Amino acid sequence: MNQAKPNETTGKLSRRSFMIGLPIALAGCQSVDVTAPTATGPVIDQGFAQMYAAIDTEPFPVPAVDTRKMDPQFLRQVVTIPVGMQADPGTIVIDPPNHFLYLVFENGTAIRYGVGVGREGFAWSGDARIQAKREWPMWHPPKEMMARDPEAAKWPDGMPGGPGNPLGARAMYLYQGKVDTLYRIHGTTQPWSIGKSLSSGCIRLINQDIIDLYSRVPIGTRVQVLGNVEPDPVAVYQSHGGAVPDPVPPRTSSNTTMPTGGANG
Fold first, then answer.
1. Is the predicted pLDDT of residue 129 greater than 90, yes or no?
2. Could you write out the DSSP letters of every residue in 90-118?
3. Cα separation of 244 and 167, whole Å?
4. What does DSSP say about strands 179-188 and 170-176: parallel, antiparallel, or unpaired?
5. pLDDT at res. 58
6. Angle at Cα 67 formed by Cα 21 and Cα 209, nearest 5°?
7. Taking 60 as the threshold, does the pLDDT of residue 220 lie above it?
8. Which of 3, 31, 77, 115 is the one with CA 20 to 30 A from 243?
9. Given this model, what pLDDT does residue 229 score?
10. How many Å separate Cα 186 from the centre of its chain?
11. Residue 65: closest CA among 191, 188, 165
C-alpha cells in the first residue's frame, strides 16, 4: 500500500536541525525582504534547478520541476520574515493571501515555500499542531466524488500512495487538541497550482518542497494560519480534507504543456 505509519518523533526543532541538510543552493540564495518584494523575485539559477531536480531515491519517481515556468517568488528560499510576524523558532506560518509557507528560524529568517491554498468557502485560519506525518499517504475520495467520478469510484477503500495520488509524496495532519481539523499540508504533482487558490482547504506544496519540509519538522510542530477565516467543517468533512480534483487550467500558448487532468487537494 506504500503508506508509512505516522512518524511519532517529537521535540522542538533547533536551528541545528534546521540547517542540517539545507541545500547548498539555499545557502547561496540571497535573503529576500518579503516586506518589499520585487516584481520579478530572485533570479532562477542552477541552484534552483538542482533543488527541483528529479528524485530517484523515493519508493516512486518524483519528476523534475521546470522552474522556468514557475513564478520565482514561489521557489524555496531563505528570507527575512515579514515585519510584525510573531512566531517562535520551529513554527510553521502560512500566509494564504500571498501563498507562502514559512518555517521560522531563531534569527528572524525562515525558509519560505510557495503553496496552493483553499478556494473561497474552504479557506481557513487559526492555530493547529502536526499530530501525524505520512510518506506517500493513502487518499480516501469522498462519497460525493465517487458517485460522480468513475475514476474516484475505483477507490472505495482508499487510493494507495503513488505518483497519481492527490496527496503527493508526503502529508502532515493538523489537529487542534485531539480533534483532527481534516486539513493537511501535502504534496502535489501540479506545480502550476502553486500560488493559486484552487484546493478545498488543504495547503499544497511541490513534491520536492513537501519532502524537504517534512524532513525538517517533528510531530507537535505548531502551525499558524494567518487571517480571520473560519473553516466550514461540513465542506471540509465532505471533501475529506480537501483532496479533490483541481479545475483543468485553460489551454493557452503559454501553458500548452500543463496537465489535462488529475487530482490534487
1. yes
2. T-EEEEGGGTEEEEE-SSSEEEEEE-BEE
3. 10
4. antiparallel
5. 97
6. 35
7. yes
8. 77
9. 62
10. 5
11. 191
The CA-atom distances, in angstroms, between 20 and each of 13, 30, 49 are 11, 19, 20
Q: Among all residues, which ones are annotated catalytic?
A: 186, 202
Query: Where does the pLDDT of residue 152 fall: very low under 50, low under 70, confident under 90, or very high at 90 and above?
Result: confident
What is the separation, in whole angstroms, between the first and last Cα of the chain?
A: 20
Alpha carbon distances (Å) from 82 to 32, 90, 182, 195, 247: 10, 16, 28, 18, 32
What pLDDT, in 10s, does the model give residues 174-201?
Answer: 999 999 888 899 999 888 899 998 876 6
DSSP structure string for 158-226: -BPSSTT-TTTTEEEEEEETTEEEEEEEEEES-GGGTTSEEESS-EEEEHHHHHHHHHH--BT-EEEE-
C-alpha cell at 69: 515556468
Measured between alpha carbons, how far is 1 from 198 in angstroms, rounded to an integer? 28
Beta carbons of 185 and 207 less than 8 angstroms apart:
no
Question: How confident is the prediction for the chain on average, in pLDDT?
Answer: 76
Dist. CA 103–CA 125, nearest whole Å = 17
CA nearest neighbour of 115 among 259, 265, 220: 265
pTM score over 0.90:
no
Residue 206 neighbours by CB distance under 10 Å: 30
Tell me the β-bridge partners of 113. Answer: 101
Which residue, among 141, 194, 201, has the nearest Cα to 165 in the 3D structure?
141
Cell numbers linked to 14: 533547533
Residue 146, pLDDT score: 85
- How confident is the model over 65-101, as pLDDT tens digits? 999 899 999 999 999 999 999 999 999 999 998 999 9
**How many CA atoms within 13 Å lie on the side-chain side of 110?**
25
